[in-house]
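User: Predict structure, ligand adenosine-5'-diphosphate.
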Amino acid sequence: VYSLTASSVAGEGQSHAAVLFVVDSTERDQAERQRQEFTANVSHELKTPLTSIMGYAEIMENGIVKPEDVAPFAGKIRAEAVRLLTLIEDIIRLSQLDEGGAPAPFEPVELLALCGTVRDRLQHKAAAHKVTLAVTGKPVTAQAQRRTLEQMVFNLADNAVAYNRAGGSVTIEAGAEGGAPFIRVSDTGIGIAPADQARVFERFYRVDKSHSKMTGGTGLGLSIVKHGAALHHAKIELQSALGVGTTITLRFPKA
Ligand code: ADP
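Assistant: Predicted complex:
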């Protein structure tokens, strides 16, 4: 899409000179459209848990809840509040990454240890899903924003557990190939169809909305990975086959 702007320039002693500006507005329009879409999606995603919270609170206020139902109702309110909080945290993180990253320093980060931290954080969830979670590889150091990188690997491994099957496995690997550090998260889960592979990194894009709601995801996990990778000048490689599993590799620049 091109926008044309014609402008008249009157020069001295000349009658008229016409200048034609040709501006490629495709990118600008697309960015604007994405922003509008994002705002609409955010509003919708924030309203859903809030509407449930208000519903439960109203029922409790009206006194029609049996005493034994009070605790489960409070539990539902808390779960929706947690969902809301996770969503708000993800939105803040994305907007920080949009503005060039959180105001955190880049420092040498040992990747195998970072993978171990992520495994420890996810061990409980993996056990609940009956998924084995392992870390493998060699110690290797990359320049990174520690918290951002940990969040990225967490998001990948969290998905690898969530979109898996009972008895399945997840491997988080750190190492270097050709002097370039990498982190790789592989799973034996449901896989991502070729048509969805490029789209899963878009904000709020989910292959299966109902399944994703069940897994408690915000739909922002992989966009955070994408923006975080750009911040680290890292490449993302995705390999996936339906019903077989998914492998996502983050490749960092050579030290
Ligand atoms: P969500 O919070 O829904 O998990 P993400 O941005 O992390 O959002 O992922 C987007 C979508 O990509 C998910 O809803 C899911 O459909 C798909 N997806 C992500 N990771 C995997 C994976 N390891 N295996 C299968 N599907 C995945």
